[in-house]
TrEMBL record:
InterPro entries: AL/BT2_dom
Domain of life where this protein originates: Bacteria
Protein name, per record: DUF1080 domain-containing protein
Organism, as annotated: Sphingobacterium daejeonense
Residue ranges of domain 3-keto-alpha-glucoside-1,2-lyase/3-keto-2-hydroxy-glucal hydratase in the record: 36-236
């Protein structure tokens, strides 16, 4: 091999090694933003019943929809993610039947110490406002899209009629939490401030000392006594 060819070979080898040592940032980005590991639209892989594990429940997946049928086979229980999340954006669509009531929880601490998801997790209320029980209709913190039963921008709680799909979104970043219902903000607050803690103290959630005390946790869908369906469920970690 000539001196000239040897120099070219050495240069190519150096570039090749340098290329191999570069981190594959595209691959890691795709993995962290891959919502199929959160909800795959095919089955309940990655999810289980709160405090009870992978037993047969009222939850099922049909045609990509996550459905809770209280009249179906299996046990009652909120469906909760296997993994915890802290800074994220969660998008989903939801619908209920006439007078239907459900919710989506964030920052849930799964522990036998807490009998229910609402003991720790913040709930975005899902409700057919127009046909709900009177006790829900008279209190804006009970309306669709609101932080139940603490705080609400009631003027933006305008769910579509029962049986129609609604858009929901939850964002949490560094303690700032925002709920959207059909592209309008229905709740927004910093959950780590004394002012927010006072709002809890003024609500019925004062009876649950661990409520809103965890900065991260699991995400849960509520198994109420009513039917509820979800679709286009996706999460992006921030």
């Amino acid at each position: 091999m000539s001196i000239k060819n040897l120099s070219i070979y050495a240069l190519a080898l150096t570039l090749g090694i340098a290329s191999c040592n570069q981190p594959n940032t595209n691959k890691s980005t795709e993995t962290s933003n891959d919502s199929t590991t959160f909800y795959n639209g095919k089955d309940l892989n990655g999810w289980h019943v709160y405090n009870r594990g992978n037993l047969e429940s009222k939850w099922k997946v049909e045609n990509g929809e996550l459905i809770c049928d209280p009249k179906g086979n299996g046990e009652f229980g909120d469906l909760i993610s296997d993994n915890e999340y802290e800074n994220f954006e969660l998008d989903f669509e939801w619908k209920v039947k006439k007078g239907g009531n459900s919710g989506v929880f964030i920052n849930v601490k799964e522990d036998s110490t807490y009998a229910a998801t609402f003991a720790t997790g913040l709930e975005m209320q899902l409700l057919d406002n127009a046909n709900a029980e009177p006790r829900h209709q008279v209190d804006s913190t009970h309306w669709a899209g609101c932080l139940y039963p603490v705080e609400c921008i009631g003027s933006n709680s305008k769910p579509n009629p029962y049986g129609e799909w609604n858009k929901g979104k939850i964002k949490q970043q560094d303690g700032q939490v925002t709920f959207w219902l059909n592209d309008k903000i229905t709740f927004q607050d910093s959950i780590n401030t004394p002012a927010f803690k006072q709002k809890i103290a003024n609500s019925n959630m004062k009876n649950y000392p661990a409520f809103a005390t965890y900065p991260k946790g699991k995400i849960a869908f509520q198994n109420h006594t009513d039917s509820v369906s979800f679709r286009n469920i996706a999460i992006k970690e921030l």
